[in-house]
């Protein structure tokens, strides 16, 4: 069942959208999202391969890895607060200014991580500063993705929202390619050089990426739907409060629908890279290279699923993505346990592809769960509450290894649970979708 925000038909003076503008805005959103996930993926990989050894060296190996993943999770815990802060900016003053602030925060924090002295140099201050910079990343990312998909969707004709929202999602696998390639290259260095300075290079590359992303975003026009809200003086004073008070059920559905795209991704990348290299003894380069292959497949699946969502609805696509991920979670980890480079690559690729089915349509589904005056805050809160919950899953899965005697069934079980919750979110989300009937599409 699809409901509308306004009666069918477009009144005089209604906001106008066009495919050409939508494409330009979606590409700008894509660039910023690519930087966002480049930074986040870098941190996840470094948490598994670097930070546990260089920033938590006073702990035993298992405790150091858990502490490293806890720092990784801090960024996710900060994301709901970032969603509230930048949701307020985006729903009160404009999507554009919020997105300009978040992109600068993300890029600067990431570059500073690349300049951070390690534990051997400054002692306890090293992990503390690392956690602080991770916190800044988390606050910024809390407002980044929600604003990016909101801008892309609100500039798009109603019948083409799926493809433009999916284009924003392509930023994730592109970022994975960039980050994995950067780490693959620096892993070719001798171990001493990698630990001394090599791992820092991928983080410092965030600086030129930030300059490009900022230049593109400065050219972006404000959302026509938000301009219409300002003209009608229909903005909300405290949008996050209104989301919790008047759209709490929709917010819960958004959280469920987003769980797999965030939590599943980091289970198949961050946790699996750590599990393969630290527990199974597989070469680090094998684990990182597998994510490169998976990222290419994810781009193709994401684009296709965006188009499919326009035909059958993003909620149904989300449902099937969750069901398939749950069914194949245990076989995927069984393939990884073989320690075969080929089987590991196939397993990671299959896992990412299945997760991408639901992730591809997150933007289209979540934006249509909330009315325009609450949209930035609602989308950002839903996505980032899911992120705050699932960001600690690599740490939880690592802890489960101790319980299971280093067997992977605990991690597979976690993936099954979040997959089924996302399938439920897709079913409910499809029934709750709203459409902006006031839009007029230019030819």
TrEMBL record:
Classification via PROSITE patterns: MFS (PS50850)
SUPFAM superfamilies: MFS general substrate transporter (SSF103473)
Listed transmembrane segments: 62-86, 98-116, 122-143, 164-189, 201-218, 251-274, 286-305, 317-336, 342-361, 381-403, 409-429
Membrane topology: Multi-pass membrane protein
Pfam families: MFS_1, Sugar_tr
CDD domains: MFS_ShiA_like
Domain Major facilitator superfamily (MFS) profile, residue spans: 25-437
Keywords on record: Cell membrane, Membrane, Transmembrane, Transmembrane helix, Transport
Protein name: MFS transporter
Keyword Transmembrane helix listed: yes
Keyword check for Thylakoid: no
UniProt cross-references to InterPro entries, sorted A to Z: MFS (IPR011701), MFS_dom (IPR020846), MFS_sugar_transport-like (IPR005828), MFS_trans_sf (IPR036259)
Subcellular localization, as worded in the UniProt entry: Cell membrane
Main location: membrane
């Amino acid at each position: 069942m699809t409901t509308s925000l306004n009666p069918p038909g477009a009144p005089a003076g209604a906001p106008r959208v066009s495919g050409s503008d939508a494409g330009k805005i979606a590409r700008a959103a894509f660039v910023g999202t690519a930087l966002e996930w480049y930074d986040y993926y870098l941190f996840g990989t470094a948490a598994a391969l670097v930070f546990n050894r260089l920033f938590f060296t006073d702990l035993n190996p298992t405790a150091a890895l858990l502490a490293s993943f806890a720092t990784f999770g801090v960024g996710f815990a900060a994301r709901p607060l970032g969603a509230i802060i930048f949701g307020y900016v985006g729903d009160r003053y404009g999507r554009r200014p919020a997105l300009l602030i978040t992109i600068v925060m993300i890029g600067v924090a990431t570059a500073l991580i690349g300049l951070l002295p390690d534990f051997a140099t400054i002692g306890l201050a090293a992990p503390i500063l690392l956690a602080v910079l991770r916190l800044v990343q988390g606050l910024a990312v809390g407002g980044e993705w929600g604003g990016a998909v909101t801008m892309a969707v609100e500039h798009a004709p109603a019948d083409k929202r799926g493809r433009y929202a999916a284009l924003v999602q392509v930023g994730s696998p592109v970022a994975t390619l960039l980050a994995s390639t950067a780490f693959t290259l620096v892993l070719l260095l001798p171990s001493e050089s990698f630990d001394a300075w090599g791992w820092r290079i991928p983080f410092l590359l965030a600086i030129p990426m930030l300059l490009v992303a900022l230049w593109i975003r400065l050219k972006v026009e404000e959302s026509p739907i938000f301009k219409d809200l300002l003209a009608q003086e229909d903005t909300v004073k405290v949008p996050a409060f209104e989301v919790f008070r008047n759209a709490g059920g929709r917010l819960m559905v958004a959280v469920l629908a987003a769980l797999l795209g965030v939590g599943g991704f980091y289970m198949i990348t961050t946790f699996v890279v750590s599990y393969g290299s630290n527990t199974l003894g597989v070469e680090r380069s094998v684990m990182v290279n597998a994510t490169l292959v998976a990222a290419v497949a994810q781009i193709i699946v994401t684009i296709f699923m965006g188009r499919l969502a326009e035909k059958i609805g993003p909620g149904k696509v989300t449902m099937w993505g969750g069901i398939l991920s749950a069914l194949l979670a245990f076989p995927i980890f069984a393939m990884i346990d073989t320690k075969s480079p080929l089987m590991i690559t196939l397993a990671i690729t299959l896992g990412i592809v299945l997760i991408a089915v639901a992730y591809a349509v997150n933007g289209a589904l979540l934006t249509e769960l909330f009315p325009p005056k609450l949209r930035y805050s609602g989308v950002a809160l839903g996505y980032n509450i899911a992120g705050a919950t699932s960001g600690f899953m690599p740490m939880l899965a690592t802890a489960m290894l101790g319980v299971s005697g280093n067997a992977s069934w605990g991690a597979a079980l976690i993936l099954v649970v979040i997959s089924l919750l996302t399938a439920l979110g897709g079913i409910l989300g499809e029934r709750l979708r709203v459409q902006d009937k006031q839009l007029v599409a230019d030819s």
